[in-house]
């Protein structure tokens, strides 16, 4: 049999220090391969199982690269809010200080800005006292910002504060920044580990089964959709229109539609649709209203971007707001039914900020704890240029260079077909 | 001493039937006067207590005008959603059928439209079975619509269905409609009682201490403001901007600000403010951001309407959206700080539909039960042209013609001063 | 006309200092009489209105007894937890420091123990920083204890720390202790004001319309009763038995039953009942189960205490646990249906600790803010030996010596009759 | 390479009918193997991957055994309540009627009792109308009962009503009953499929990653533990003692402790402990109280069963209640600190019924939908004697005979070590 391919995280060098956790558990996870990356194969052909990729399992290691008592840990949170940020910060802090006894933990403020001297955002020292109850609130105590910063300046800051391990909590851009830092420290030959905890409320990181905050977000939609349903039912041809997060993937919108059966139309980026024409969304909405007198429509913010080009063709103003599909739908629905001389009452819900700023639910809280702990385990063992995440229900190390691709809904998948069945929407709402 | 003035509800005539509730309680409330209407006096001068108005107490009466077993009750809900509508419908239905044993209860659908033949909205018969669990959901099972309908046609419908008692659940316009119906039936000499249950989530009916759904609405703002606070704190000069209900009064916004101490600015219709200038809102917001790096702003939808005139003067496009103070503030804040060359991150929350469509909380549920029961007690005794409501913590009968005035926040009152103290906002944000 | 009787709070002496709040509002509440104490009269006879009692209105005064900049404030919380304790502590602290600029605020820990030297509970200084977000959590940051302490030792502690104003947050016993302190300082001729904020989750203080935390408690019962209903309905002859707070009055149980219509039996201390016999509770429960196959029973912890005597007569073990009516009912129901050879599935809910330890809801939060602020206003003006509370929807000063009596449900009142109607339970479940 | 072992579900025979779902998705899951059963191997040795078991993937099949239009479906729910029961009933009903167009769906009431004639529980016909909103409430509309019934009588009932497919929603005993029915229908040569949806709020089915309702239960503990923490902190040596579900495994208690960091001791059935002695729980609790003055203890109901034997040895009364570990701990803690002459304030929380009776959260709702749909897909294809469940994040078919074993927490696992770290409790609390 051909040798199975095991994908391992980079390491800074030979781990030589005994872990303080050694002996606490019966066997350590010292790099065994784990659940396979079967995204293209679906196990249909067991003959080819030998060329499936395996990932390194996350977990504490017996030997550490760093001597804990000398280690300074840095943490930074970047990009938009997501439930669980404070849980991850807390787990990183507690595991570093309590399980490994590191020298100190520094929280850099306002994202990567906090790692660039000219912004004057001095870091704060994180302790078990000042992070003890932070997970009970949403947001991030380290604050955040968007955008990249100069890699060299970031590394200068790491050197200045003697940071040995940097944890980067953020999305795609953040992890690309982390990769740049890794390359920079390599060039300078610095023994600094960079480990990412991927953050995307949209749940769209390829290979990673679930990102923290996603389940909390889906849970938060339940009441909103129920309320949209109440609004819709209370008026003649009432339309409860709910705009949810999901820039390039519709996981939140689709999961929300499966979780709350009151949804009649679910529009996601992966499934283009037309507004007009005999098979367009508006015609189907009209039919629904004629039959039931009300409808609930859930739309991911990245859905229907094709519509803007069409509209921009006829409307040269190029209004930036047009890219807001929720507002576009609201206006188009109103215009359409006015033209049809049919009453319609659109009630618009845009709860995004109200969702992403809440605390993690219990399941996400647990997940954040595990992510934080295992990021520390990895970094202490000298792993770098990697993220931690769940894959086939196991925590693994995933090299950052593999993280680029986005996980999107396959319209041919049974997951999406279940959404189609649950909503009873047409499989296609496009005219061609 | 001069005789105290007792304000009583109209009555259809002499109540002659024994109430089935007679004997169930030790004494009946047969029209005693009750807690005084002291809105202008504040009891400062006890010498003048004799010219204070007293209202008739709500409650079951020993003698009824209607013979219950022959009575048909009609119910209609009008206008926007409000938590508790289903509770009121349920209470009216249960009290009519179970406490009095009326012949039947009809629910007219889609507001006053349901009382006009040409809309073809046939009424549904309400029973204890089909209303038993409706209070567990938001919305209104009778559906709603806005706007007046022809009074004669409404009365024709009442006659057609043999309705003896009509309960009108709705706001100002609805109760004006109810008054028109009363006048119409008087002219035609019809023994039909019309009793209103006033609905305004804004809590702005003069003389009425509290309208149903209001407390639920305030409760619902708590999490939203907490989340806006989390968003604001997470970004440099973050501004959590929360647009709440309150077209002509700021009770929800002000109460929300007292209930959740994270609010830094509370803007209400009763207290005009300027945007620009040395004492304008934007200057104060800037000062706050310079000191604290974040702010939470709560605005009632009817606040700052003066600003639109000023803006319309310079901007002739007359964009309809301009009347949305939330959007206006969002745009003006962004423009101002851009001009000031100062970063600001505005996060906009507009949860109105998500608030008004939820179920009543426990305290409102109880209140709706009491309102519904006492509306039935009043109507069965032949009272008409009135609403029920809480006044100095007692349920009273209030003649509809007295209902016109709006209860607004007095900027000189200690209530508003408490808001000013709690938020630490300037007492005035106007330049002149 | 005879002079109306105005009940005023004691005062330490002549208020001579200008209030820093002076000029901030248009008119100050300098002791006007207010909404009447009509508990026995019901306004039935307006002729006698002149002998009604009037209470002093709470609110800021233009003149203060204390010079704010020299004032040390003390705060203590006693007895069981109640939603809103932290809100009151926060309001007292903020109003003292920010509105009046007092010298310092001391929080005494573990109730009255914290005011007795031998317990070594040193007070903590309360600031706007360390109390800013305490209202977001349940419990009390000052901790609590039960029971009285020696008055002289308490006063020694007040003198030691230079406390000018003591705020006592607690129930009956606490306010009796406050009264004792007042008498003690009078004897020693000390200018110390003692103002109470009455705490009883049971809502049973006579003359006070509503105590803080009560509405939160009732709200908390909603889900529990709904869940008890789900349990009851799921099994043959399922009985959801919910034990709620209410040692000597049934306000929580009764209000919970009005707020959630799934309750079939509501048992309160004010309405004795028999278990056995043809008109006993168990017979009526049996009838209910025969008709509907399930029932929800809500019982206040102080209900049915008469039953223990009867049982003790036959059962000499005198088990202390027998005084737990919830457990007694659970056992008696099981025994009864076993004897009747009829299946019954009792599901027992005892959520008390889980209710009283939660944070205040929005409405209670607002109320706590007002209570705290007005307690400070009163004390700064030199008022003492009093509590603040809501009476006919206005905040008043109530002398502590008037506080003794308990507000209980009058079984003849229309409030209780509404409970009887809503639950459809028999008006009487006693055999004699 | 040796052939991988694929574990397939039994089938009634050759599927010959085209599925109405055929063509709706691009490829059907016709029995491919899937994520491996690696419970004992941990992928440590990739050489042996060929002898790993693979399970059949759940999903719709192109060919059906049953002709949908002739099919009668039966559903039964057994045992204790669990969040999501109504979701599963709804999914089974909707998928059967809408996706396959079966003739009818019958709901048998009160568990297996409903399948035995002598109980006179007639089945109800389930439709998309009468199940449309059932998932919004906890409990089970089909009601439940405990215990086995005679298999022959059950089969007689299936024959009487012409049931072709029986879905059994329940725990171990229920699925053993299902297996007996399968054997019975085999003997009688009846083409009846029996497919189980495993229910255990404790999440302790071996091979199944997660059972429905479990995440909802863990979520529900968050507030309770937070409240227990508030109670504990408010009193000197306050102990918040929370008794949670978990008869033979501690998944809920352990997950709750990971989700809410306020837990200081987590006691589960898998990790025995002593009460007394130098390394006993009480000594450690004392140390905690001496250091921190409060503690939160979470105990699974099945923990510490060893203690009862010891106690029974000295206490011959054999009180049945003694088996309640929560009550035992409460009493023992009180007795211990009384003997130690040290104040302790134990606040006891037993929320079990209040947890299991609530509605499913969003994530469980989605899971229930998928479980229900895939159970229908399997049964329509003629699969029988199997359950559906999640395994390594994929839905599989698992033969009922493989279901016996219980999934318990391995005290040597990193999961449990994380609990030990998070709580800071001793790894061992036993004296020997």
TrEMBL record, chains A, B, C, D:
Gene3D superfamilies: 3.40.50.450. Residues 73-378 form the Phosphofructokinase domain. InterPro entries: ATP_PFK, PFKA, Phosphofructokinase_dom, PKF_sf, PyroP-dep_PFK_TP0108. GO terms for cellular component: cytoplasm. SUPFAM superfamilies: Phosphofructokinase (SSF53784). It comes from the Bacteria. One of its GO terms (molecular function) is metal ion binding. Its cofactor is Mg(2+). PANTHER family: ATP-DEPENDENT 6-PHOSPHOFRUCTOKINASE 1. This is ATP-dependent 6-phosphofructokinase. It comes from Pontiella sulfatireligans. The gene is pfkA_2.
